[in-house]
Amino acid sequence: MSSQASPPPGAASVPEVMQFPMDFPIKIMGKRVDSFADAIVAVVRSHAPEFDPATLEMRASRNGNYLSVTATIRAESRPQLDALYQELSSHPLVTLVL
Fold first, then answer.
1. How confident is the prediction along the chain (98 residues), in pLDDT tens digits per residue?
2. Domain boundary assignment for the chain
3. Does the pTM exceed 0.90?
4. Which DSSP category does 6 fall into?
């Protein structure tokens, strides 16, 4: 018996849906505080140095308590996206990453 886990049935035949490189929008939501957008830009640029902060889209919630920002990056690989999502998700100002 092998100690390595087997991939789920059919996993080897599932094609990669994402074709890299590609433009990839990431929506990040959190409490509306002055430093939120700057903090998001810093994290995004650490994974995608070419990201232009001027392209960041921002929208406040109806009551103004939360801020949604969308950063569209030029994604080079799935591991790059995974690392970016992980760091954004663990950031103390971030509530949700989509």
1. 444 555 555 545 445 688 999 999 999 999 999 999 999 999 999 999 999 999 999 999 999 999 999 999 999 999 999 999 999 999 999 999 99
2. 30-97
3. no
4. P
